[in-house]
Design a protein that fits this description.
- Keywords: Cell outer membrane, Membrane, Transport.
- One of its GO terms (cellular component) is outer membrane.
- Pfam families: STN (PF07660).
- This is Secretin/TonB short N-terminal domain-containing protein.
- By secondary structure, the chain is an alpha+beta fold.
- It has two domains: about 110 residues, Immunoglobulin-like, CATH 2.60.40.3500; about 80 residues, Phage tail protein beta-alpha-beta fold (3-Layer(bab) Sandwich).
- Helix content is about 20%, strand content about 40%.
- It contains three helices and 14 strands.
- The strands form four sheets. A five-stranded antiparallel β-sheet has the order 3-4-7-6-5, with no helix packed on it.
- β1 and β2 form a beta hairpin.
- The radius of gyration is 27 Å and the shape is elongated.
Length: about 240
Amino acid sequence: MKYSLHIPKHFLCLFLIAACLGQRSYRYDLFTKAPELLDIYVSEEDKSYSLVMEFSAANFDYVTNETFAPPSVNLLLKNVKWNKGNFTKKTDQNPLYQYSVSIPRNDNQKEIKERITVKMDFTRVPEYKIKLVPAKSKTKKHKLKVTWEKTKTKKSKNKYLASNKRLPPTRISLNFQEAKLVNVIRMLVSQDNLNLIMGEDVQGRVTVALDDVSLETALDAILHVNSYEWFMQDNIIVV
């Protein structure tokens, strides 16, 4: 005896439609597009600065590493697209003096897809926090923030400190390896005929790689790395 199973046509149609929708949903989840880095900028709060990166979605990873000669923080973003090309931007959010975005390349000098390197160059690496802020309400932008506190001015030196305008608007570019610290400082101040006083305890060597930064930023970078402070009184730079 033979048995046959009769399935109504409308049930069969519904089953096929559901199967197709499920397959499309599976393909969508499997091949979700990489999010795009939409913008990058520096924001300021009362007591802190932040480097803000805005993304179209949050399904990305990042790896952080630091270097200390010269001082910098590097973020390697994975599964992220960037369509605006490599660039570097100068800033005055001390101790950050510039940041850059670039697409890394492999051994054959071909761009690595969906990889981005964000580099932050400091006069000294501050204590910082990294936080992912999910999109809220109508704004569909997810934000990754690197935040650090503003440099605090020591009260004991307030009577000596001068405004930035008292330093010449000179831009500095230097590239030295293991140079004597005192020689580098003398060379910096001699370009604008500034007076200089240094104590006998100022010593050591420094490796410098600065490109088009202000005189103040250069002094901060070179002296702070060696744990020295400086201030300006009248037309005299005191280290």
